[in-house]
Each structure stands twice: as C-alpha cells, then as structure tokens.
Amino acid sequence: MASNQRENERKTKKLKKEARLQRIIWGIIIFITIILIAMKVVEADFNSIKDKYIDENGKINVTADIESGVYPYQLDSSGGVKLYYQSDKLNVLTSSSCTVINPKDTTNLNSFVHGYANPVVKTAGNYFVTFDQGSTKMRLDNLKKCEFDMTTEYPILCANVSKTGNFIYATTAKDNKATLYVVNKSHKTLLKHEFNDGYIVSVAVDPTGKRCAFAAINSKNAKFITTVYTINIGDEGERASFEFEGTNVLDLHYCDNGLYFVGDNGLYTVTSQKKLHEVLKSGTANTVCFGYTRDDELLYVYSDYSSANENHLINVSPSGRKRKKIELSKKPKAVTSVSNEICLLFTNEIKIYSLTSGEEKDSFKCDDGVSSAYKLSSRVFIIKGQQLDVID
Q: Are 151 and 170 in contact (CB under 8 A)?
C-alpha cells in the first residue's frame, strides 16, 4: 500500500515536471514566433523603405517623394538650355543664368545671372566652371556657392575643372598664340604654359587636378592637323603629343586611369600620359553623340557614315577596350548615364538600357522638343523649351 502511494507520488511529480517543461517549451516557441513575425514585418517595412529610397546601386534615391506641384519647373529662358547631373543635383544653364536645383523639391541651391554672351559650363564632382567663351569673364562654383569670379587679360578659348576644384583654361595671348593656366580654388596659379604651335581648342584636367591635356589645331603641308598634348603640373614642357590629320576634337575628358579623345570621326584613349590607344581610327566612324558614366567611362554612339540609320553604342574603358556594344536602329540625340543605366534620347522616345548587360529595360514617350534627358531612379528628368519636367 505504501509502495503504491510512493509510486503515485512519483508519477504525479513526473507529470507536473513534464507539464512545466511543456509550458516552458511552448513559451519559447511562442516567443520565437512573435520575434519572427516582428522581424518579418520589420523586414517588409525595411524592404519597402529600401525600394523607395535606395537605388539598385545602394545610393540614396534623390527623387523619392517628389513634392506635388513642383514640376514642370519654369526656367528664365528657353535659349541655349543645358542640363547637367552633379552629385544628386541638377545644374541648369540657360542663356541668362545658371542654377543648381534639388530635384526633389526644386530648391535653388546656387543660382546666379551670368550675363555671358556665349556661356559654357564644365562640371566635375561638386565643382563647375562657367565662362564666356571668346570674352574674359569666368567663375568657379561649388554646388552651394561661388568660390570666386575673375576677369582674364585676354579672351578665353576653353576651360575645364577637376573634382578637387583645380581648373584649367586657355586664353589668347599677345606674344604667343595661346597661354594655358591651371588655377586652384584658392585662386593660386599652379601652371602657366606658353604655347605657340597652333590654337588651343579644348582642355582637360584629371580628377586629382594634377594631370592635364590640351588639343590645338594647326596646318602642316597644307593639311589640317589636330594635336593632343599632355602635361603635368610641375612640368616645364609637354610630356607627350599625338597628331590626328583631318579630325576635329569634340571633347577631352579624364577618368581616374586615362584620357579620352573624342573626335568627329574617330576615338582614342591615352594612358600614363604617354601611351596612345586607337579605339576607332580617324575617318572610320561618324560621331553621333557621347556621354560619361558615373565612373567617368565613355559611352560613345557612332555610325559607319553620316546618313546611316544604323548606329552603334559602345562603353569604352580608359585602355581603349570596348566593354559593351548595343545596336541601335535609329539615331539618338543624346546619351547620359547616372547609375547602372544608359539613357538614350531619340526624337520621339527615351529608351533605358542596362549598363552591364546592354538589355533594354524601359522606354518613355516624348516629342522632338525634348533637348536633354537624365534617368534618376524611377523618373526621367527632361528639358523641353523653357521647362524642366519629369516623366514617370
């Protein structure tokens, strides 16, 4: 009888212990379930926020939640309007003014009336130089304020700027055909180079503000010659030179690892300031349009001859290698790239391609009045007449 009682007590204790253990286990399961549900909700909320405010490259989506009613944004003129993308901001040049705009709410971050007869803007990083080509006025700005403005002794031929704020410009001169200058944002002259072998028509300075290049035109043996020179700050003379017969220079542009020379009928790159790479030999291509990626690599559109409907787009590395080729059935007006996409503006539509795969991703209808287009996240910003507008 006593043994049965002890057995029953052991069974009762065991059942209580198992019940308590089950309660603990179920408590843990319920707690974990609550945590998982909470994490799932947070994950969903985070993903929705991420999709809305972060683009595919991990950069902040500067156009998220554009304030209603701010577009179209009215410009002060429809003449000579150019649109530039700079560090998540839009820089708009007109025949009267230059304005840096926050694309989300069209806040003017830096705006001035330039009063130039022939205004030109060159941008790099957070800096841009605005000059009156053929006159003596120019100024250096960052995205928020003017660093300084200046008046040159002789008319300005061309200018450019680096990401450090060092800028390069060339002027005519009294005793020689041209003079090349490099000046920093404190207005200190870093380089002054007298040049007599032709007229300087294009200049470039690398992202560090130390390596420079310029193109000059001249005639030799009754032939038109464009010569590209490289020079570094601290050099007493040119480091190297390259001659191109019958080719007009359209652009000189540095990236971190080299220099691009875009001609009207050919394309070359220069590395280490001395080594020339032939991408498309002069006379073998008809340049249609070109632009640069966020990493300053060249996007180049060309046709085999001027009246061809078929066009080719290539992404060119500083070494001259063609990374990607996209065949186009019609001629684009402009090409731009902000993130991992290529934006091509045609007369009646805007097409978006992947920079990595070359596949078409999207298209937007427009008309022939659109002169500039940039794809920022899910929206396309355009210039049409006297308006900066958005296409969704």
A: no
Instruction: Give kind and range of the element (H or E) at residue 129.
Output: strand 127-132
Q: How many CB atoms lie within 10 A of CB 241?
A: 13
Q: Classify 310 as helix, strand or coil.
A: coil
The two three-digit tokens of residue 172, written as one number = 């005519």
In angstroms, the Cα distances linking 372 to 12, 92, 232, 269 are 84, 11, 34, 26
Residue 32 in this model has a pLDDT that exceeds 70: no
CB 126 within 8 A of CB 137: no
Residue 392 pLDDT grade (very low, low, confident, very high; cuts 50, 70, 90): confident
* Single pTM value for the model: 0.82
In order of 175, 259, 307, the CA distances from 179 in angstroms are 10, 21, 39
> 299 and 290 in contact (C-beta within 8 Å)?
yes
Could you report how far apart the first and last alpha carbons of the chain are, in Å?
A: 88
SS3 47: helix
Chain-wide mean pLDDT for the chain?
Answer: 88
If one compares 335 and 57, the residue with the highest pLDDT of the two is 335
**Interacting residues of 160 by C-beta distance below 8 A, sequence separation 6+:** 122, 124, 129, 167, 168, 169, 203, 204, 205, 252
Q: Output the pLDDT for position 308.
A: 87
Give the 3-state secondary structure of residue 53: helix
Q: Which structure tokens are listed for 337?
A: 């790239």
